[in-house]
Design a protein that fits this description.
With about 900 residues, this protein is mainly α. It contains 36 helices and 8 strands. It has an 8-stranded parallel beta barrel, surrounded by 9 helices. It is globular and about 85 Å long. GO terms for molecular function: phosphoenolpyruvate carboxylase activity.
Length: about 900
């Protein structure tokens, strides 16, 4: 294998050896011997030895119950450590891998020079750059906060070990620290025992900001500024905020009864408390640093007669931040606290610090100003006084239920039974009315009261604390107007972005007509102030129609929305509900953004970052700087050098591919009566509900079947048995259909010239590389009734045919030829994932045969679920 990965493999080997020592110390030589035997057999089986595969199965099927948990934990931890080594490799000094070299911003400027893009256009695009990353809790995020902290520490040790000037004594000390951290991780609970509350999830999000993003943002902006200066001779404005962060943790109530208006209020307070705490640490450091005495007139006026003027200003700020933290602490605990002398808005932080910054520059101390002080000013513009802006998400019928209950109470009839035209007329009339709609003596039902209380909680906040109000399962113009009316009735004084989320195939296809209708309403046009946000759903559309049909519907919806808003002279922000997995729109950020329709990023990028992908892309400062650079360069490239408009014949062929793939997908998932029993038996879907992952229930309707299952556990279950069905089913069949019809040359042209299509195929390749036909077959044989075996065989045969179809179009001999780094990364982890798969099948076999499985068996099963998720990485 290419030498460029030797440093990575060396780190994996070292961490694995240290884990082995920990296992031997904790459980003795015999257990370590057993783990090593399984690992070696797995490696040999991967290389093609059928004898060793049989021995591996035999070893795992004959493991005594008391060894199941430690063996499961061993392989799960191997995968955690492999992921850490790989994540570290992307920022390592030894890595020649494309992730870090060449720098993505340098590569962008090289392309801009080649294409003769003017300096004026480049500077304008940089000024307009607007990236809002929305952190969301995630049912597949297994790692606890304590474990994440240990992972960060392990990374620091790997970084130190790379320094060539380390003495033997220093190296020994770092290695000893690594051994301690690995032992700490081994002796801690890997997974939670209790399901996290929405507050726990919010705290997890704040920990990511504190441990990584707080450091990464100023570092990224410094890096970006240096590149702009070098390439354009232009500095990044000091108040530029090309990147901001929002959150769904504590605001996403869609199908989550645990997110209440009270929880939302508390999360907003906690967010402000954390911001005050982080600024306080920065200001304390500035007090010790800025001991200069020379200043300009403005600072002299602010500081009075103080000998050290900067310190005087900073000490005043320190007192206010301390007050702010104490007052918020009291509010969180439900105690009375005076609110005077606290920081309420961004100007109270920015103005005194910016005055200090200007003064230092005026007095020839620019080098001091451009240190920590500049970092703090940039943090203020990015994080404000609220740290992250909280989005609110609720399902559309919850709003119409409020209005329905109200119209019945007022004797106006049942709103839910009205035509769409009548609903819109009523809503616009009430939105234009000066009198209140909610009667004082009305006592709504508990569900309705909760929706109104949430709107009141929003109305009590400053605008800066909040992001968007997202309406899931939005279908009509009245769904959007209803939220505007409820916010108005709750006393909301500011304009909030009310963002419809179109997520099924039908809803995506109707998105254009809904937004068109809204744009034709005078009240609405006046109210939105020429800005519209629309969210595109990836997971539910793929679950509904398969990835090929969903991908084309998403593209089509974005394109038509861009056109509708351009015609109306309204700026459109598309909000992408992507996940880490292909079934949820996940692809490498750069490729995904460049595969969108032309002009779809003009209004900036808003995208969800979820669970384990937050940790992998943003969890370490150096890695987060890389991720932010990739986002920035991709958006600038898409806006300055838009991808081509698809040719009419490409569109027509995509329509065919979409229709054929959707039919093929639905024939299996909806049309085959054996499918649901097969899904339930061949995957750990039923057992997933027991895993204390996210705060949200796995099903929207606890009594429903597959159709009521959330998209995330649907994909998660299939990734566990390595068939990963939702991420490919139907797509390859449609491609083969088109090849058979003589369209191979056209497909090849689309693959070469159209980023949308080539990215689809690249995503399919990645999924195919992660599938494992032998493992999927083993689950069938161990867990399903023999009558269902033909069903599994048929799906696996289809998978093999689909792989051939995609390779034919790409003219490739094997998968991921163009992405050796990705292929190596998957290969590295497979040796550890496959024994976990086989062990999971064994544990499912044993637990399903016991009426009340032993807690130890259940825990071992949970560890395999967590371990496979870690190994597959972009799982849900």
């Amino acid at each position: 294998m290419n030498e460029k990965y030797s440093a990575l493999r060396s780190n994996v080997s070292m961490l694995g050896h240290m884990l082995g020592t920990t296992i031997k110390d904790a459980h003795g030589e015999a257990l370590l011997g057993k783990v090593e035997t399984i690992r070696k057999l797995s490696k040999s089986a991967r290389a093609g030895s059928q004898d060793d595969r049989a021995k591996l199965i035999d070893e795992l099927q004959n493991l005594p119950d008391d060894q199941l948990l430690p063996v499961a934990r061993a392989f799960s931890q191997f995968l955690n450590l492999t992921n850490i080594a790989e994540q570290y490799h992307t920022v390592s000094r030894h890595s020649e891998e494309h992730i870090c070299s060449p720098d993505s911003i340098d590569a962008l400027f090289a392309k801009l020079d080649e294409q003769d893009i003017s300096q004026f256009d480049s500077i304008q695009a940089i000024r307009d750059l607007n990236i809002d990353l929305v952190l969301t809790a995630h049912p597949t995020e297994i790692a606890r906060r304590t474990m994440i902290h240990k992972l960060v520490q392990i990374n620091k040790c790997l970084s130190k070990l790379e320094l060539s000037e380390l003495s033997a004594c220093e190296r020994q000390r770092v290695e000893r620290r690594l051994e301690q951290l690995i032992a700490q991780a081994w002796h801690s609970d890997v997974i939670r025992k209790q399901r996290p509350t929405p507050l726990d999830e919010a705290k997890w999000g704040f920990a990511v900001v504190e441990n990584s993003l707080w450091h990464a943002v100023p570092e990224f902006l410094r890096h970006f500024d240096e590149k702009l200066t070098a390439h354009l001779g232009e500095r990044l404005p000091i108040d530029a905020a090309p990147v901001t962060f929002s959150s769904w943790m504590g605001g996403d109530r869609d199908g989550n009864p645990f997110v209440t208006s009270e929880v939302t209020r508390e999360v907003l307070l906690l967010s402000r408390w954390k911001a005050a705490d982080l600024y306080l640490q920065d200001v304390k450091e500035l007090v010790s640093e800025l001991s200069m005495v020379k200043c300009n007139d403005e600072v002299r006026e602010l500081a009075g007669d103080e000998h050290e003027p900067y310190r005087a200003i900073l000490k005043d700020l320190r007192a206010k931040l301390t007050n702010t933290r104490d007052v918020l602490d009291a509010k969180i605990k439900g105690l009375d606290a005076p609110s005077f002398g606290i920081i309420n808005d961004i100007e109270q932080l920015w103005n005194p610090l910016y005055a200090c910054y200007q003064s230092l520059h005026d007095c020839d101390m620019g080098i001091i100003a451009d240190g920590l002080l500049l970092d703090v000013l940039r943090r203020i513009k990015c994080f404000g006084v609220h740290l992250v802006r909280l989005d609110i998400r609720q399902e559309s019928t919850r709003h119409s239920n409020v209005i329905s209950e109200l119209t019945r109470y007022l004797g106006l009839g049942d709103y839910d039974q009205w035509s769409e035209q009548d609903k819109v007329a009523f809503l616009v009339r009430e939105l234009s009315s000066k009198r209140p709609l909610l009667p004082r003596d009305w006592e709504p039902s508990a569900e309705v009261k909760e929706v109104i209380d949430t709107c009141k909680a929003i109305a009590d906040q400053p605008r800066e604390a909040l992001g968007a109000y997202v309406i899931s399962m939005a279908r009509t113009a009245s769904d959007v107007l209803a939220v505007h009316l409820l916010l108005q009735e709750a006393g909301c004084k500011f304009r909030m972005d009310v963002c419809p989320l179109f997520e099924t195939l039908e809803d995506l296809n109707n998105a254009e007509s809904v937004i068109k209708q809204l744009m034709s309403i005078d009240w609405y046009r006046g109210y939105i102030q020429n800005h519209q946000m629309v969210m595109i759903g990836y997971s539910d559309s793929a679950k509904d129609a398969g990835v090929m049909a969903a991908g084309w519907a998403q593209y089509h919806a974005m394109e038509s929305l861009v056109n509708v808003c351009e015609e109306a002279a309204v700026e459109l922000t598309l909000f992408h509900g992507r996940g880490g997995s292909i079934g949820r729109g996940g692809a490498p950020a750069h490729a995904a953004l460049l595969s969108q329709p032309p002009r779809s990023l003009k209004g900036g990028l808003r995208v969800t970052e979820q669970g384990e992908m937050i940790r992998f892309k943003l969890g370490l400062p150096e890695v987060a700087v890389n991720s932010l650079s990739l986002y920035a360069s991709a958006i600038l490239e898409a806006n300055l050098m838009p991808p081509p408009q698809p040719k009419q014949e490409w569109r027509e062929l995509m329509d065919v591919l979409s229709e054929v793939s959707c039919d093929a997908y639905r024939d299996v998932v909806r049309g085959n009566e054996e499918f649901v029993p097969y899904f339930r038996a061949a995957t750990p879907e039923l057992e997933l509900g027991k895993l204390p992952l996210g705060s949200r229930p796995a099903k929207r309707n606890p009594k429903g079947g597959v159709e009521s299952l959330r998209a995330i556990p649907w994909i998660f279950a299939w990734s566990q048995n390595r068939l990963i069905l939702p991420a490919w089913l139907g797509a390859g069949e449609a491609i083969q259909f088109s090849i058979d019809k003589g369209h191979a040359p056209q497909l090849e042209e689309m693959c070469r010239e159209w980023p949308f299509f080539s990215t689809r195929l690249g995503m399919l390749e990645m999924v195919f590389t992660k599938t494992n036909i032998g493992i999927a077959e083993y689950y069938d044989q161990r867990l399903t009734d023999k009558s269902l075996w033909p069903m599994g065989q048929k799906l696996r045969d289809q998978l093999q045919q689909d792989i051939k179809a995609v390779l034919t179009v790409e003219n490739s001999a094997h998968l991921m030829e163009q992405n050796p780094w990705g292929a190596e990364s998957i290969r590295l982890r497979n040796i550890y994932v496959e024994p976990l798969n086989m062990l999971q099948a064994e544990l499912l076999y044993r637990t399903r045969r016991q009426e009340t499985p032993s807690p130890m068996l259940e825990e071992a099963l949970m560890v395999t679920i967590a371990g496979i998720a870690t190994g597959m990485r972009n799982t849900g």
